[in-house]
Amino acid sequence: MAMPSSIETQQQEVSGEDDNETYSFASQLVLGTCLPMALQTACELGILEIIAKAGPGAKLSATDIAAQLPTKNQGAPIIVDRIARLFASHNVLCCSVVGLERHYSLSPVSYYFIPNEDAVSLAPVMALNQDIVSLVVWCQLKYAVLEGGIAFNRVHGAHAFEYPGLDARFNQVFNTAMLN
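Above: the chain sequence. Below: its structure as tokens.
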């Protein structure tokens, strides 16, 4: 009888409660881009600021939030609710149910993405990391390993610190992030 491979042995060692925890972590790795992209969207739309402007301890429904967005999309409350539920599952927002409706309030983490009295927040740094200029670089990482070179240079034809001089829009994103 053949001995099990080390991979089979390792897979057999993960069971029960550990298996659920490990699977949950693996799922987080697979979906790792979803939360930052949703947070970027929320910052661009001002969703967290809408809740903050409602006052300390305010709890708003997705419909309340969507009503303050510059949109005529009747489906906006549904999408806002999905984003807010994602945030609540990661403690970015708090969620309470009133009747059949979810209401969202700020969590301590939320405040890091809302400009403070000095107009400083982590939102511009996140915008830099979530910008298409930054994201497409990761698609070249494999080729940088296999073929050599620096992934950023491969994609953009310039060093990361030279590129902002070639792209005025990205230069603004970069400089705003550095100020924060």
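The chain has two domains: 34-113, 123-179.
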